[in-house]
Amino acid sequence: AVHASPQPLEQIKQSESQLSGRVGMIEMDLASGRTQTAWRADERFPMMSTFKVVLCGAVLARVDAGDEQLERKIHYRQQDLVDYSPVSEKHLADGMTVGELCAAAITMSDNSAANLLLATVGGPAGSTAFLRQIGDNVTRLDRWETELNEALPGDARDTTTPASMAAT
């Protein structure tokens, strides 16, 4: 069995103090599924751009089901672009494939790529429905980029817990 040292928890507590904020984390043994270390694992945190991982999971599930194709080209207009779209802003003339949009959303955190993909899964409600379907009853996406980054204290919109993200 692998046992984590208490050092990561001390580092997290120190980070919280330095940041004057909350930090949540969970470390799991992937072989056993057991939690090794956790801090605030069941507290809600704003997802911010981490939702893009779940979103691309939903897109890939649609590909596996035959409801989507990674090679399908999506065309969009200037008015579809939102703040921080370093990849998608360069492809207004030619569009991008679903696979390229996933890559841009994950590797470059491209917000417009995420919104274009979000539209293919039924928007924020469709993303949350996908999560419920795969057994995540905690994580929720309520808004599109860039509004979901508002992250007001006590607001459950667009949040998850470290434990839910690890299990999902």
UniProtKB/TrEMBL annotation:
Catalytic activity reads: a beta-lactam + H2O = a substituted beta-amino acid
Report the top EC class in one word: hydrolase
Q: What InterPro entries does this protein's entry cite?
A: Beta-lactam/transpept-like (IPR012338), Beta-lactam_cat (IPR045155), Beta-lactam_class-A (IPR000871), Beta-lactam_class-A_AS (IPR023650)
GO biological process: what's one of them? beta-lactam antibiotic catabolic process
| Source superkingdom | Bacteria
Q: Which UniProt keywords apply?
A: Antibiotic resistance, Hydrolase
Q: Name one GO molecular function term.
A: beta-lactamase activity
Annotated signal sequence is: none
Similarity annotation = Belongs to the class-A beta-lactamase family.
Protein name from the UniProt record: Beta-lactamase
Q: Which organism is it from?
A: Escherichia coli
